[in-house]
Amino acid sequence: MMTRHTSVDLVFPKSKERHSAVKVWPVHSRLVTPFPSTLNSQFHHSKKIWFLYGISPYLTYHCQVGQSIDFSVLELNKIETLRSAATMPLHADLDRQIEQLRECKYLSEAEVKALCEQAKAILMEEWNVQPVKCPVTVCGDIHGQFYDLIELFRIGGDAPDTNYLFMGDYVDRGYYSVETVTLLVALKVRYRDRITILRGNHESRQITQVYGFYDECLRKYGNANVWKYFTDLFDYLPLTALIENQVTILVFCLHGGLSPSLDTLDNIRALDRIQEVPHEGPMCDLLWSDPDDRCGWGISPRGAGYTFGQDIAQQFNHTNGLTLISRAHQLVMEGFNWCQIIV
Question: From the CB of residue 247, how many other CB atoms can be counted at a distance below 10 Å?
């Protein structure tokens, strides 16, 4: 006699439905024993399990109908593996897309949509001050200069062989903003721990409608859908990064500059970044401000953010135990500019 089996989907136990945390399909099957109270508590409090609800269609456990299940056999590391399999596209498909993008051939609208959804799931787990390990290659504005990006990878090494940190402004001005930002997002999804992408002031709905990215999306796709997928994704990009090494050298990285409203890294960590770049305020300042030869704070000629002097940077570094501030946002003809405590 054949044993009849069914699949049990795990879903995140909600406060009012703790005893229905296990569902059995098909509908005519009987409900199996729910979580033991002790394990239920562990699941409810574990940060590693928050994603179970979202991937329940992928997480199955086969049992005989009516049989009790010992959920203690489901180890957290196995669940994490299932999560990766459920939320990430196949590596082979991603590798194909990356190779296509390296030839400056943009993806289909459907592929971009799926890629942005995968990237959003990754970026949701990252912080306003995203930690980055050494060694790392730090890069400034790309602005749609696709072939400059390819040359950068040729000189510095391809991901994942080289660890990269990009400090924003991937789109606008250049002719290949679509290919540039899509390649960086694809690399982020494929090698999430080897590439960090921060938000710049051009990763914004308003700015991209003025400086070219919106029009490029219309020209290449015939509609604004791809522009919307990317600008929605931009809301999730980390605002800053903190590079650490074993000898306590801390490098604070961001696109623009400091803010009079933000004295500490904890102030930055407390910001709600998942929004369009505001016209003013601390989040705006991080993406728009510039250093200045004059001391103190000044009015920015850009119309957003502030200028800040060497004294402001020194005080911020001292307060937060930083060695150096690394930023982008401005053109320097030498490729980089060393200014004592600001690069």
Answer: 7
- In angstroms, the Cα distances linking 303 to 37, 90, 138, 297 are 57, 45, 27, 14
Asked if omega into 160 is within 30° of 0 (cis), the reply is yes
pTM: 0.75
Q: How far is CA 148 from CA 24, 140, 253, 270, in A?
A: 54, 12, 21, 35
Q: Which domains are assigned to the chain?
A: 5-87 (no CATH), 91-327 (3.60.21.10)
- Evaluate if residue 84 carries a pLDDT over 60: no
Cα 329 → chain centroid = 19
CA dist 172 and 234 (Å) reads 14
CA dist., res. 177 & res. 194, Å (int): 22
- pLDDT surpasses 50 at 149: yes
CB contact at 8 A, 176 and 144:
yes
Tell me the pLDDT tens digit for each residue of 50-60: 333 333 333 33
Q: What's the chain's Rg over C-alpha atoms?
A: 23
Mean pLDDT, the chain, whole residue set:
82
Here the tokens at position 19 are 């005893």
Q: Which residues are catalytic?
A: 202
CA angle 56, 57, 62 (to 5 degrees): 90
pLDDT at 86 over 80: no
pLDDT bracket for residue 340 (50, 70, 90)? low
Closest CA to 184 of 220, 239, 230: 230
**What is d(CA 91, CA 81) in angstroms, rounded to the nearest whole number?**
14
Q: How far apart are CA 37 and CA 75, in angstroms?
A: 17
